[in-house]
Amino acid sequence: MFDLSGKRALITGASGGIGWEIAKTLSASGAEVSLSGTRTEALEMLAGEIEGTSHVLPCNLSDMEAVDRLVPEAVQAMGGIDILVNNAGMTRDNIFMRMKDEEWDKVIAVNLTAAFHLSRAVLRPMMKQRFGRIIGISSVVGVAGNAGQGNYAASKAGLIGMSKALAQEVASRNITVNTIAPGFIASAMTDQLNEKQREAILAQIPANRLGTPDEVAASTLYLASDEAAYVTGQTLNINGGMVMI
Amino acid sequence: MSDIADRVRKIVVEHLNVEADKVTDKASFIDDLGADSLDQVELVMAFEEEFSVEIPDDAAETIQTFGNAVEFLTKATS
Question: How far does the CA of residue A127 sit from the closest CA of chain B (Å)?
Fold first, then answer.
């Protein structure tokens, strides 16, 4: 339904479950994709699955010098950039009273500061071409909070606030900035839950099931499309009704 | 000098959609020519492209008027 032919997208965290599906979906809709992540082998495997043009650009998002090289590399590989998906994220869970500075700093750096650096870097080409889509993958935890995830919740809420501010700055240049806040999505992370944890989570979800990565990818495709030109500064909550705001 | 001024004026006129005679030496992009802060960044980007120079952020902040821009670019390209 949505056509991204001629569009060039950079996706971070593309080797993870959701990022993987986002990359495949954008590519299947016609976009040329740059796949970033830390696990080169997984990225190569993804590139092999993708039929359209793709580029593998490994990057460690906790290394800001490497982060600052990523957009120029993507622009060089694709000849420009139209879509940035800040999807990469990590967790270092701990209750507040036990949380170490390093756990806080690392999560903020990868989930929020790297997204800031990458978003800043794509603005120049996007402003010049008078078109851009910046999409941040936040989390229901950034919207509603979650015990034991103070750092993660802060980073994901930060992504939403940052996107709203940037959306206001660049809306007049046809650049939209939005976030997606997935709830519990079936992934390697949720596979680690035991039966009891799983039941406790499902009890909070009216849809009574976990979401799937392609359900997140479909909304990413929508926000990246020309059809979503009038949608900016918004957060799409994809959570089976877990949180309704 | 005049050649640089003409090229700068052309960029300003096109980008800010103003009359050429309003673009005087003392004309401030923001106060007199209706630019917002994003326009100012875009002007600097356009100057960089036109004159093949790099204008660092702290220098860009000093370019507030048409005269500032011509002066900076005259020095930068000499």
Answer: 8
Coil, helix or strand for A231?
coil
- Taking the Cβ of residue B42 and every Cβ of chain A, the question of whether any pair is shorter than 8 Å is answered with yes
Measured from the Cβ of residue B52, the count of other Cβ atoms closer than 10 Å reads 8
Q: pLDDT tens digits for A87-139? A: 999 999 999 999 999 999 999 999 999 999 999 999 999 999 999 999 999 99
In whole angstroms, give the CA distance from residue B44 to residue B65.
Answer: 12
Is B38–A124 a contact, with Cβ atoms under 8 angstroms apart?
no
Mean pLDDT score, A199-225: 96
What distance in Å separates the CA atoms of residue B66 and residue B64, rounded to the nearest whole number?
7
Judged by CB atoms closer than 8 Å, whether chains meet at B45 and A169 is answered as no
Lateral strand order in the sheet of A235-238: A54-58, A32-37, A8-11, A83-86, A132-137, A175-182, A235-238
Cβ-contact A30, A2 below 8 angstroms: no
Q: Which two tokens mark B59?
A: 């220098």
Q: Which ranges of A36-178 does DSSP label H, i.e. alpha helix?
A: 40-49, 64-78, 101-108, 114-129, 140-144, 150-170
Give chain B's domains with CATH numbers. Answer: 2-77 (1.10.1200.10)
Q: What is the pTM of this model?
A: 0.93
pLDDT in tens, A36-90: 999 999 999 999 999 999 999 999 999 999 999 999 999 999 999 999 999 999 9
A124 with B45: Cβ contact below 8 A = yes
Active site residues of A: 152
Query: Which residues of B are part of the catalytic machinery?
Result: 36
A chain contacts of residue B41, beta-carbon cutoff 8 Å: 127
Instruction: Set out the domains of chain A in order of their start, with CATH numbers.
Output: 8-234 (3.40.50.720)
Contacts of B42 in chain A (CB under 8 A): 127
Identity of residue A18? I
- The complex's ipTM works out to 0.82
